[in-house]
Write a structure and sequence with these properties.
- By secondary structure, this protein is mostly beta strands.
- The protein is 0% helix and 48% strand.
- The protein has no helices and 15 strands.
- The chain has a four-stranded antiparallel sheet with strand order 1-2-3-4, with no helix packed on it. A four-stranded antiparallel sheet has the order 5-6-7-8, with no helix packed on it. The chain has a four-stranded antiparallel sheet with strand order 9-10-11-12, with no helix packed on it.
- Strand 13 and strand 14 form a beta hairpin.
């Protein structure tokens, strides 16, 4: 089943086909232009790809849940690099991603540890926001995340809300 989608500046949709262990690139009219990946541990293989994000160069970042990594691809599906960006403890349940292109930061949901982890685009851990709970700044299963206008928006499955944070400070 598809779990995440991003749209590039040309209007192409990238879809994480989690159960099929593939990424699809689809035109605005719905035609599949490109599909890559299969189940496995290799450079263009996935085990449950979930979160997707695009950087300022149009490179696609794929959170590969089962392989505990983020794989980066160019617009044609060629593997660019692999990032072992897992900052805290055991890895998350289905991480979702967003990128602040100006600050060159990647924000990733960690529903297992109930926080948002922050990395540079090379995968260096920069810190995290939040703890488990129901108050402001606390999370219960953060899943959706999006960056816009210097804000990071986070949806939570168990608190049934959206929280908004300053991208620079996390507050």
């Amino acid at each position: 089943a598809p779990k995440d989608i991003v749209i590039d500046d040309s209007g192409y949709l990238y879809i994480a086909n989690t159960g099929m262990h593939k990424i699809s690139k689809v035109t605005r009219s719905g035609s599949r232009e490109l599909e890559f990946g299969k189940r496995g541990k290799g450079a263009v293989e996935f085990t449950e790809p979930v979160g997707l994000a695009l950087d300022s160069l149009g490179r696609l970042y794929v959170a590969d849940t089962g392989n505990k990594r983020i794989s980066v691809f160019d617009k044609d599906g060629h593997h660019v690099k692999q990032i072992n960006a897992f900052g805290l403890e055991e890895y998350y349940t289905e991480p979702y991603l967003t990128i602040d292109k100006g600050r060159k930061r990647m924000y990733m949901t960690d529903s297992r540890n109930n926080n948002i982890q922050v990395f540079d685009l090379d995968g260096n851990f920069q810190g995290f926001w939040g703890t488990a709970g129901t108050g402001a700044g606390a999370f219960k299963m953060p899943i959706g995340i999006e960056y816009a206008n210097d804000k990071v928006f986070v949806t939570e499955a168990q608190n049934h809300r959206v929280q908004i944070f300053d991208a620079a400070s996390g507050k």
